[in-house]
Write a structure and sequence with these properties.
The protein is mainly α. It contains 12 helices and 2 strands.
């Protein structure tokens, strides 16, 4: 029978020691292998079941912070984040947000850099109070910040703040160009670029588009307004 324990550390964090369903390192490896051979449903199911086992393990109404450096514990956090992404990509924004909130409770330092995706979930859900709380945790150095600001304003008011659009165009030109382009092919040239040691800003911009493309299909008005502007 599968067993797991939360093992406290001197740093007041916890490690997940487990086997079977709680051998998260093994589950992560199996999900990655399934993904590589094209068994996407199998990979998603492995990640979702890992989330369920992790949720069962964490006690309710207690603060539990997990140790990032411990391999099995880190694998559990990876699986949780990737399952949140899986649900984001199928437009299940509510479950994705709940998973990301759970992740940030377990890993307040946000090693997965999950905050920006959570902010996109909140805008999709029109939960603007939650969005306003989390957007300040998204760094101004990253293109997600002006994109989120623009999209949230468009969702709320139906218009784009010109100053923020100018900031996106001037400070993150490859992203502005990508998000207003007619096509976004994930072709061989892009794949070689994004998988290289130092991807170009253009490839990183396309990667962000591809990660959020389902939003612009579900909420098409924003990209049309950005392009028109």
């Amino acid at each position: 029978m599968a067993e797991a324990i939360l093992n406290p550390t001197p740093d007041q964090t916890f490690r997940i020691e487990g086997r079977g369903d709680y051998d998260f390192s093994r589950t992560l490896r199996l999900s990655d292998e399934a993904q590589r051979r094209g068994a996407v449903d199998e990979a998603c199911n492995l990640r979702f079941h890992a989330f369920q086992h992790l949720a069962d393990l964490i006690p309710d109404n207690e603060e539990v912070i997990l140790e990032w450096e411990h391999p099995n514990t880190q694998a559990a956090l990876h699986l949780l984040y990737r399952s949140a992404v899986d649900h984001f990509l199928i437009d299940d924004f509510e479950l994705s947000a709940a998973m990301l909130e759970f992740l940030l409770d377990l890993d307040p330092e946000d090693h997965e850099e999950a905050t920006w995706l959570l902010a996109f979930d909140y805008v999709a859900l029109a939960d603007y109070d939650a969005f306003d709380e989390v957007i300040n945790d998204v760094s101004d150095k990253y293109p997600e910040k002006p994109l989120l600001t623009l999209w949230s304003e468009y969702r709320r008011h139906g218009s784009l703040p010109a100053g923020e659009a100018i900031r996106l165009r001037n400070h993150f030109a490859p992203y502005y160009k990508e998000f207003t382009a007619d096509s976004h092919p994930a072709d061989d040239a892009y794949l070689r670029d994004i998988e290289s040691e130092r991807p170009t800003p253009q490839a990183q911009a396309r990667e962000l588009w591809l990660k959020t493309e389902n939003l612009w299909t579900a909420f098409p008005g924003f990209i049309a307004a950005l392009t028109a502007l």
